[in-house]
Design goal:
It is built from 15 helices and two strands. By secondary structure, it is mainly alpha-helical. The protein has two domains: 124 residues, Peroxidase, domain 1 (Orthogonal Bundle); 137 residues, Peroxidase, domain 2 (Orthogonal Bundle). Strands 1-2 form a two-stranded antiparallel ribbon. Helix 3 packs across helix 6 and helix 4 crosses helix 6. It is globular, with a radius of gyration of 21 Å. It starts with 5 loop residues before the first helix and ends in a 21-residue tail after the last helix. It binds protoporphyrin IX containing FE and 2-acetamido-2-deoxy-beta-D-glucopyranose (2 copies). Protoporphyrin IX containing FE binds next to helix 4, helix 9 and strand 1. Protoporphyrin IX containing FE (HEM) binds next to helix 4, helix 9 and strand 1. One of its GO terms (biological process) is hydrogen peroxide catabolic process. It is found in: Secreted. One of its GO terms (molecular function) is metal ion binding. Its cofactor is heme b; Ca(2+).
Amino acid sequence: MQTQTPTQHHCHTHTTMAPPATFLVVFSLLALSPLYSSEDDGSLYPQFYDHSCPKAQEIVTSVVAKAVAKDTRMAASLIRLHFHDCFVQGCDASVLLDSSGTLTSEKRSNPNRNSARGFEVIEEIKSALEKECPRTVSCADILALAARDSTVMTGGPSWEVPLGRRDSLGTSVQGSNNNIPAPNNTLQTIITKFKNRGLGIVDLVALSGCHTIGNSRCTSFRQRLYNQTGNGQPDATLDPAYAAQLRARCPQSGGDQNLFPLDPVTQFKFDNQYFKNLLANKGLLNSDEVLVSGGGATAELVEKYAASMEAFFEQFAESMVKMGNITPLTGSEGEIRSRCRQINH
Ligand code: HEM
Ligand SMILES: *[C@@H]1O[C@H](CO)[C@@H](O)[C@H](O)[C@H]1NC(C)=O
Ligand SMILES: *[C@@H]1O[C@H](CO)[C@@H](O)[C@H](O)[C@H]1NC(C)=O
């Protein structure tokens, strides 16, 4: 068993027409793992590619490292892609598909348009993986691994990524518009959108901590600077000096695409500074601010993570695994795409 090369393994699964996932799970049950009690219970596990593509994780890591070395912000963009994937039809790489035929790309949705980025990095990872082990590693798993690697490379926590997701055959622009919270949603709406995906308040606050890196466009926070409640006044909860700094970069009209760091104090470092900013009334997005100004459970969690990087890191890792488990396609559902931007034909 140990002498099989990945290539032989791949050919074997194809020539016998055995559903690859079933084969793999049986294989790993025999070879490795007394932990998994059922071969088709649809659950993900970190060793999924250990035999079919043993180099999968190291290939993902090396392409992400190269991309982040070239453009540090890419780490943020890749984590966000995984989030925007998982909140729409589950973690199935639907976010990566281009429009074609009857299929409309989620790249056009309100949260993604002129905003989501990193697609070419995912495509580069995919082509490296296709060379190593064709049609084996899903685009959905690439997103999950790239999100973990991006977190680690910017100084955040690491975790084992459960694997075995498969790729969707379709998209949902409506799901992208409706399920992903908007920056001007109320706290209650944001909580509900997380709850609808099986995530609680603890997950919401910890995962929002991802705004410790990356940028926002002016258009995503302008309302707070000029006319928060329709009375022509800025958001009263925003630190006035910080608001003035933001207005300089984000005029009342125009400059929609101007960028501002979500955490201007340590914008390239994955740390708990985001929570400290919130306590100082220096959250950039309204959706950040409401975690504190809403009081109650979310504000207590913000205080907890501002006080302890360790508590934040531990919960972030746990919540990322939970987010990554949102209704994946497994077994013979969906497919393994050969390019992430289009379904196989
Ligand atoms: C809680 C609800 C959330 C809202 C309302 C929200 C909203 C936003 C908005 C409006 C931006 C700026 C987009 C732009 O203007 O181009 C942004 C950026 C970002 N978001 Fe969130 N987000 C939320 C949760 C999350 C979660 C859960 C994650 C990851 C686990 C995340 C990761 C990021 C990252 C890393 C960026 C920066 C991306 C880049 O620089 O390319 N966000 N978010
Ligand atoms: C939220 O922002 C969207 C997009 O800019 C806008 O159409 C909508 O009116 C805003 N909602 C509220 C409650 O301000
Ligand atoms: C603020 O928003 C309200 C409601 O959308 C609008 O009627 C008013 O003209 C705006 N005021 C300014 C100064 O932009």
